[in-house]
Amino acid sequence: MKSKKGLTLSIIGSTGSIGRQALTVLEHLGGWPVALAAGENAAEMELQCRRYKPRLAALANVDAAGDLRDRLSDTSIQVIGGDDAICEAATHPEADTTLIASAGVAGLKPLLAVIKIGGRRIALANKETIVYAGNLVMERARATNTLLIPVDSELTAIHQCCHTTSNHDIKHISLTASGGPFFGRSAESLKDVTVEEALKHPTWKMGKKITIESALLLNKGYEIFETMHYFNIPADSISVLIHRESIVHAVVQFSCGATFFQTSVPDMSLPIQYALTYPDKYHSMIKPLDLTEKPIIFAKPDLGAFPCLKLSFEAAKKGGLAGAVLASAGEAAVERFMAGTLSFNGVAECIEVALKHTPRGDSLSIEDIMETDAEMRAFVYDY
After folding, report:
1. Can you tell me the distance from the alpha carbon of 185 to that of 166, in angstroms, rounded to the nearest whole number?
2. pTM, two decimal places
3. Hey, how many other C-beta atoms are within 10 angstroms of the C-beta on 32?
4. Is the domain of 167 the same as that of 289?
5. Cβ count near 187 (within 10 Å)
6. pLDDT value for 287
7. CB within 8 A of 269, min separation 6: which ones?
8. C-alpha triplet 349, 357, 228: angle, nearest 5°
9. Among the three residues 305, 322, 352, which one is the final residue of a domain in this structure?
10. Nearest-angstrom CA–CA distance, 359 and 250
11. What value, to the nearest 5°, has the Cα angle with vertex 346 and ends 343 and 349?
């Protein structure tokens, strides 16, 4: 087996679903996680540190970092805590790649810190950072010669389809979606669904937040922004197709009339490995796809039953701070749904009202984004 020995990685969000899978992929490749960072899960971080022996471990929660420091007192691993500690882990000088897998706006600060260094590969599994600040992120990445590779089944699939051509040859991109656990149901039938029902995703095993967002098709809405910014095409050239079998991850039509599919079994280890090793390809852990096992069927999404997708298209076309409003209101509304203080359909209602109050102008400074985030969260929590 061909391996990528010598690959050194900093993982932000190592205790989450993508972070844990990334450690498995890295071990498979023969690489080493030089720095690990997460929010507050000291117990899981201790297990990871004892197995993978990074130089540095960071937790955003200072108290949890203190707990971790005590747990690892018999090792030489440096343990630090606080928001700045996450950035320190992200920019560790011995890492040649940084994987950012933390969720929400919390991923923006370490992302920009790594971009500022320049010349490093970033594997980005945080969709919201692109929704919040896609233009800003891409401009800074280009200016500092930073290679930004998405860690996502659909975005990785598009990247592979487009690898042999220039972006101006792309005519249309279709993102595929499983449709989640509520495919085929009406808006009326969804008003009383429970968190437990929404967490029963038919294809992917993910964290709770992203699983709920997928049930709403809000996660697919975030991918509209990613597709726009990674591949430099307008929202009008993007569509979504429901594909229950989840074996076609992207459909790309080129100006010559050719249409490319990317297919594989639904397994996140493939996009993680792709982001870590691009442009090289290595033997992966996933099984080959048997195209005779499942039919390939596409359908249009029901925007009436899943209005978060419609609202995402509207926000993408509006530009400016609309993405920040969508992501902050969406995250806060999903938190309320998981807490039992907002209905499933109420998530889209909150986002729709929030988008009507999008600040005017095209300014996308970090200060503008963070202020908008705070305002929209406060609005949703009081809605």
Report:
1. 40
2. 0.93
3. 18
4. yes
5. 15
6. 87
7. 21, 24, 25, 28, 284, 285, 286
8. 80
9. 305
10. 33
11. 180
Q: Quick one: tokens of 116?
A: 């500022």
CA 47 to the chain's CA centroid:
24
Query: Which tokens is 21 given?
Result: 């899978």
Measured in degrees and rounded to the nearest 5, phi and psi for residue 95 equal: -90, 130
For residue 309, give the 3-state DSSP assignment: helix
Last residue of a domain, one of 305, 320, 346: 305
How many whole angstroms separate alpha carbon 68 and alpha carbon 261?
45
Say what angle helices 127-143 and 322-339 make with each other, to 10 degrees. 150
**383 within some domain:** no
**In-domain check, residue 358:** no
Query: Do 31 and 97 share a domain, yes or no?
Result: yes
Nearest to 380 by CA among 315, 316, 323, 335: 335
Assigned domain for 349 exists: no
Six-digit token string for 132: 């919040």
Tracing tokens 């069927």 back to the chain, one arrives at 297
Which string of DSSP letters, residue by residue, matches 277-302? HTTS----SSPPP-TTSS----B---
Give the start-end residues of each E strand in the chain: 8-12, 32-38, 56-59, 78-81, 97-100, 121-124, 147-150, 170-177, 238-242, 248-254, 259-263
List phi, psi (to 5°) of 375. -65, -45
Q: Count each helix (H run) and each strand (E run) in the chain, helices first.
A: 15, 11
Nearest to 54 by CA among 43, 45, 41, 62: 45
Q: Per residue in 3-16, pLDDT tens? A: 455 799 999 999 99
- Domain range for 86: 8-150
pLDDT, tens only, 102-154: 988 889 999 999 999 999 999 999 999 999 999 999 999 999 999 999 999 99
* Domains held by the chain: number: 2
Q: 80-94, 207-221, 277-291, 321-335: which has the minimum mean pLDDT?
A: 277-291
Residues 172 and 103 in one domain: no
CA distances from 72 to 56, 81, 382 (A): 11, 14, 42
